[in-house]
TrEMBL record, chain A:
Residues that coordinate or bind [4Fe-4S] cluster: C347, C407, C410
GO biological process, one term: L-leucine biosynthetic process
HAMAP family xref list: LeuC_type1
Assembly and interaction partners: Heterodimer of LeuC and LeuD.
One of the Pfam families matching this protein, by short name: Aconitase
Top-level class of the enzyme under EC nomenclature: lyase
Enzyme Commission number, as recorded: 4.2.1.33
Role, per record: Catalyzes the isomerization between 2-isopropylmalate and 3-isopropylmalate, via the formation of 2-isopropylmaleate.
NCBIfam families: leuC, PRK05478.1, PRK12466.1
Record protein name field: 3-isopropylmalate dehydratase large subunit
Cofactor, how bound (note): Binds 1 [4Fe-4S] cluster per subunit.
From TrEMBL, chain B:
Entry keyword Lyase: yes
Protein name stated in the entry: 3-isopropylmalate dehydratase small subunit
Enzyme Commission identifier(s): 4.2.1.33
Gene for this chain: leuD
Originating species: Kitasatospora aureofaciens (Streptomyces aureofaciens)
Enzyme class: lyase
Length: 476, 198
């Protein structure tokens, strides 16, 4: 019987397979950041172990890094200690690191792909759940805990329990104004935050094939929000074109050998998935979340749901709790929900195409007076590219704040946080209670919706802007 | 890792679904570089509310958490497991755990037990009406026992063996170092390396 993409990549990395034990898998790329690694390095030190493969390991600083005054010492002493700890560990164990101020610094899941380190058919891990992002290249990529970080540092392998496979087939064309973010939010709303549990998802179908690499990363990034082990997309010409010429992409004969291998990384026609989900792309619309988990989402054109609408008692209670926390009335049109802040950034939507999309909406427009908008590029490279294209000027002219690269308000470990009760339209991936700051309220949206929301001060899509501008023109 | 064989203790019924790791331990606690000292961060936002179940005097000293479905979703932070352990929990029972959280818990000797939602609800009503009710989580027999409840649970044999013996994964893997070296010798040349390219 044929094998799925995920099974092929898995099989190619089995170091040891013994009945009754989990497979021991080789790890091709291990990404580190400051938050989940200190205790792992401590463990190595205590046991007198080394990093087995420093040449397959790379660290960057992202979660704690400030996005203002990056040339000054970091104000928060605890954040400073954590960053210094990573630097010390990297130096002691011989791991390559990109620190604040370095041109390759940025959010770990933006840095790996842009360096060309994330490649088809590799196994990629990081002490971070959004490692699923790298699956966009046909890599088997998953988030791990600190004990596993230590395990990979010491052995370059992981014992892993078997997974099940799920195909998410999206056929057709995405309607105008509907993005990869809307697609994945709709998928999560459909299968639920636990729907992917134990599965590696493979996104397939014509709508997926027509996505750019950056859009594919947005989709795979949020696989974890459906509870999945990983998300993957088969590599194709789009993937190869993205990789060609990147600093760590193979060169010369290696490139040819690599591409030949990469072309084999597709699910065989006679392979069987454990579960399949079909989605008609043409039915998708801009999608936003109203609740406190990423599965609590709805089309922007709909209303805040009534808890009674949910048949499942757990979901009903969850909806009640969410509406209370979010300060929302059931039945309110989502388009009437006013926001205080807008955040464009994160490993979901902090790449150059995302910034271009937000800037295109903001060009010649103003952020509403009562709204604070933060634009935080996913990496220094993304920032430099944006500046070269003049996008930073568009943002600042519109009244948004253009910041330095990092995770920033995605999780508020640095000073970029919401105040209690503040409401934010965010291009990040989690709307959990307090995620963007204690008491903060998050609506997950696409970059386009984020920008339109900033202009109107309430949840909106770019099409709402053209209407308004048309009205203004008629009145004038 | 400490061994886990069997544990008996009073319980905290946490009747909520989708308790994510941001609730279990908020991000600002993640700046610590140790594995200990997270107990005050556990459910920090909810604990501000005096009526939150963990704050009630009769729940003090409880060691078994009985949670709703999708417990531990979200971030991969192992700090969530450390916080539960630092606070004093030895076991968490739920009908569904997020994968990464579950993996982390079992690596640290915090036993996460999957039981059907009906059984979880029976444990909820038992421990809600009687805070002194004890729950036994018996890994040897793979069984949860409480007044009126005897429920067996599944756990992978290999994981169970490691927990029962308190074995460290890394030492086990390193016993197979020769397999790793053999695999490394066959890796294709085109595979990426992180060392700076000249
Ligand atoms: S941007 Fe957000 S989700 Fe991504 S790695 Fe940083 S904190 Fe995690």
């Amino acid at each position: 019987m044929g094998r799925t993409l995920a099974e092929k990549v898995w099989d190619d990395h089995v170091v040891r397979r013994v009945e009754g034990e989990p497979d021991l898998l080789f790890i091709d790329l291990h990404l580190l950041h400051e938050v989940t690694s200190p205790q792992a390095f401590d463990g190595l030190r205590l046991a007198g172990r080394k990093v087995r493969r420093t040449d397959l390991t790379i660290a960057t600083e992202d979660h704690n890094t400030p996005t203002l005054d990056i040339d000054k010492p970091i104000a928060d002493p605890v954040s400073r200690v954590q960053l210094e700890t990573l630097r010390r560990n990297a130096a002691e164990f011989g791991v390559r690191i990109h620190s604040l101020g370095d041109v390759e610094q940025g959010v770990v899941h933006v840095v790996g792909p842009q360096l060309g380190l994330t490649q088809p058919g590799t196994t990629v891990v990081c002490g971070d759940s959004h490692t699923s992002t790298h699956g966009a290249f046909g890599a088997l990529a998953f988030g791990i805990g600190t004990s596993q970080v230590e395990h990979v540092l010491a052995t370059q392998t992981l014992p892993l329990a078997p997974f099940r496979t799920m195909a998410i087939t999206v056929e057709g064309e995405l309607p105008e104004g509907v993005t990869a973010k809307d697609l994945i939010l709709a998928v999560i709303a459909r299968i639920g935050t636990g729907g992917g549990q134990g599965y590696v998802l493979e996104y397939r179908g014509s709508a997926i094939r027509s996505l750019s690499m950056e859009a594919r990363m947005t989709v795979c990034n949020m696989s974890i929000e459906a509870g999945a082990r990983a998300g993957m997309i088969a590599p194709d010409e789009t993937t190869f074109a993205y990789l060609k010429g990147r600093p760590h992409a193979p060169q010369g004969e290696d490139w040819d050998a690599a591409v030949e291998y990469w072309r084999t990384l597709v699910t065989d026609e006679d392979a069987v998935f454990d579960h399949e989900v079909f989605i008609d792309a043409s039915e998708l619309t801009p999608f936003v979340t109203w609740g406190t988990n990423p599965g609590q989402g709805a089309p922007l054109g709909s209303n805040v749901p009534h808890p009674e609408d949910f048949a499942d008692p757990q979901e009903r209670v969850a909806a009640e709790n969410a509406l209370r926390y979010m300060g929302l009335e059931a039945g309110t049109p989502l388009r009437e929900v006013a926001v205080d802040a807008v955040f464009v950034g994160s490993c979901t939507n902090g790449r150059i195409e995302d910034l271009r999309a937000a800037a295109a909406v903001l060009e010649g427009r103003k952020v509403a007076d009562r709204v604070r908008m933060l634009v935080v590029p996913g990496s220094v490279r993304v920032a430099l590219q944006a500046v070269e294209e003049g996008l930073d000027k568009v943002f600042t002219a519109a009244g948004a704040e253009w910041r330095h690269a990092g995770c920033s308000m995605c999780l508020g470990m640095n000073p970029d946080q919401l105040a209690p009760g503040e409401r934010c339209a965010s291009t990040s991936n989690r709307n959990f209670e307090g995620r963007q700051g204690k008491g903060g309220r998050t609506h997950l949206v696409s970059p386009q919706v984020a920008a339109a929301t900033a202009v109107l001060g309430r949840l909106a899509s770019p099409s709402d802007l053209s209407d308004r501008f048309a009205d203004v023109a008629v009145e004038a | 890792m400490e061994k886990f064989t069997t544990h008996t203790g009073r319980a905290v019924p946490l009747c909520r679904s989708n308790v994510d790791t941001d609730q279990i331990i908020p991000a600002h606690w993640l700046k610590k570089v140790t594995r200990s000292g997270f107990e005050d961060g556990l459910f920090e936002a909810w604990r501000k509310d005096e009526s939150f179940i963990l704050n009630r005097p009769e729940r003090r000293g409880a060691t078994v958490l009985v949670a709703g479905p999708e417990f531990g979703t979200g971030s991969s932070r192992e700090h969530a497991v450390w916080a539960l352990q630092n606070y004093g929990f030895h076991a968490v029972i739920s009908s569904r755990f997020a994968d990464i959280f579950r993996g982390n818990s079992l690596k640290n000797g915090l036993l996460t037990v999957v039981l059907p939602q009906e059984t979880v609800e029976r444990l909820w009503s038992l421990t809600e009406s009687d805070p002194s009710a004890e729950i036994t989580v018996d890994l040897e027999k793979r069984e949860v026992r409480a007044e009126g409840v005897t429920a067996s649970f599944e756990l992978d044999d290999n994981v169970r063996w490691r927990l029962l013996n308190g074995l460290d994964d890394i030492s086990i893997t390193l016993q197979n170092e020769a397999d790793i070296a053999a695999f490394e010798a066959t890796r294709p040349a085109f595979k990426p390396r992180t060392l700076p390219v000249s």
